[in-house]
Amino acid sequence: MNMIGNLNWKKIIFRWEMALIFILVMEIIIFGSINPRFLKLPVLLGSINDYISICIIALFGTIVMITGGIDISGGAIVGLTSMVLGLLWQDAGLNIWVAVILCLLTGVLCGALNGFLISYVGVQAMVVTLGGMFLYSGLAVVLSTLSVSSAYEGISGFPQAFIRIAGGKVFGFIPNPFIIFLILVVIAYVLLHKSRFGRYVFLVGVNPNAADFSGINHRFVSMFTYMLSGLSASVAGVVLTSYLGSCRADLGNELTMPIVTAVVLGGTAITGGRGSIIGTALAAIVIGLLRFGLQMSGVSTQYLDIPVGLLLIVAVAARGASLYMKRPSFAAKKQKAV
What we know:
By secondary structure, the chain is mainly alpha-helical.
C-alpha cells in the first residue's frame, strides 16, 4: 500500500505541470526582486490583460494540435474580428451585443474554412493556416479602409458596458479577463478530458485510420477543432478590443509565436495524440508573465520575442529528447551499456 502511495506521489511530483508551476514561481521571485511592484497582487492579476489573447487562443489551439494539426492564423483572426466588430457597431449602426455575436460567428467561419481545406480537401495544416493568416490580415486591413475612422486611429468610443468586459473587476480587485480565462479553462478541460468528443480528438491524433474503423468521422472532428480555434480567436478579439477601447487591424500581429509556444511548452506533442489543457494554461501564464516581467524590468518590447523563441526551441528539444529516451531501443542500449 505504501509503495502504491509513493508511486502516486512521484507521478504527481514529476508531472510536467509541476515543472511549469516551479518556473512560474521562479519568475515571480526573480522579477519581484528586480522590481518589487511586480509582487503586488493587483499588478499580477491585472497583468493578464496584456496576454489574455495568448491564454484564450492557446487553450483551443491545444485541441487542434492534439489532432495532429496546427493553427497559426489565430492572431490574424483577432485583428479581423476586431474590425468586423467595430464596423458593425459604428458604421452599420448595430447594437454592440449583436455586433459581438456576429463577430464571434466570423471567427467560427474562419476556422471552418481552415478546417474544411485541411480535413476534406487534404491540404497541409501549416500551408492552410499560413495562407489564412495572410488572408485574414489582408481582409482586416481592407475593412479598416471602409470605416469612417482612420486606420491609424482605429474605431473607438465604445459603450461603457462593452468596455467593462475587460475593464471591470469582480470583488473590486479580480479583473474580468482573469475570470473569463478561468471559465474557458474549465470549458476546454471538460471538452477535451471529460467528454466523448475529447476522446475522439485524442484518437484522431494517435491514428486517424483507427478512428475511421471505430466509426468516428475524423474529418469532421478535425474540422470542428479548427472552428473552436477560430471561435476562441474571435473571443480574444472581443476581449482585447474591450481592453484597448479601440478596433485595429493589427491587434493580433504579434501573437502567433507566443500562442504556438504556449501550446508546445504546455506539453502538447507537435505530432498529435498527447496534450493537456492545464499544461497549456500554465504555459500561457508563464509566457505572459515572462513578457510582462521583462517589460517591468526595463527591457524594450522589441526584444520580448527572443526569450519566447528560446522557450519554443527548448520545449521542442526537451520533448523530443524525452520521447527518444522512452523508446525500447534506447532502453536496450542503456541496459547493454550497464
